[in-house]
Amino acid sequence: MSHDTHHDGHGHNEIEMPHATMRDYVIGFILAVILTVIPFWLVMNRPLETGPTVAIIAIFAVVQVVVHMVYFLHMSPKSEGGWSFTTLIFTLIVVVIMLAGSLWVMSHLHSNMMPMAHDAAEPAAIGQVI
Q1: How far apart are CA 101 and CA 93, in angstroms?
Q2: Most C-beta atoms within 10 A of its C-beta, which of 29, 43, 84, 115?
Q3: Span 58-88, pLDDT tens digits
Q4: 66 and 94 part of one domain
Q5: Is 1 among the domain residues?
Q6: What are the distances in angstroms from CA 56 to CA 43, 60, 64, 105?
Q7: Do residue 70 and residue 91 come from a single domain?
């Protein structure tokens, strides 16, 4: 048998890991600090009403997740042949479907199960003789 099982380091299946520089890590860190300090300031000083504050914090949270994925996890459409990005997109689609479906079911349960004001008066009217 002349089949060689020795791997000589010229692997054809090697995955190229993205190389990050210190500059990338510093940019990511600064962005993460800014995206943390601004919502913290909004909560501590309360310059806005509750609704806009919550919306701004949610937006900053999503942006911070993206910053962490790009600068610290090195996720991009080019990394790992695009598979990590494809997996992320698929995961996000599944999560959105699950959240939307859960909210839809809870909304319909709330509207169909909660007693209405006119429903509370009906049992008394049924027992009365006309």
Answers
A1: 12
A2: 84
A3: 999 999 999 999 999 888 888 888 888 889 8
A4: no
A5: no
A6: 11, 6, 12, 27
A7: no
